[in-house]
Design a protein that fits this description.
Strand order of the largest sheet: 1-2
Order of helices and strands: HHHEEHH
CATH architecture of the largest domain: Orthogonal Bundle
Oligomer: single chain
Shape: flat
Number of helices: 5
Strand content: under 5%
Length: 139
Amino acid sequence: MISTRTADASRDAYQALRRVERQQSILEILARSPDSCTAHALADRLGVSTRTVERDLERLRDSGVPLRTRRGPGGGVRLPEQHGRRAVVLEVTEIAALLASLAALGPTSTDSATSAMQALVAALDAPEGEPGEGQAGER
């Protein structure tokens, strides 16, 4: 018989993974949207409550994600306007940390997770000082 503590830990880990997947989806939706999105619209798209999306947005803000919010009619949340790719310089240990996180999430859970995994692996495979094939700024 599985102990209650083990079952609780398993459930908590599953819920944490679902939260991370949902937050990844929120960021992808916002990145692709030319306009602000309401929490209600995000909730409908993700099949969760508006309050769940609001908590996810709060966690993302607390983590440093630069979300822009406008209240009132026509308001919503969005990412800062971005165009094109961004080059990011990371230490090998930072690349490893991101790879481990993507592996836990599921490196093929979304298109952006797949391309991020490929770029990070390429960066590790590249000779020192040379950008990896598929790294930001190379394509």
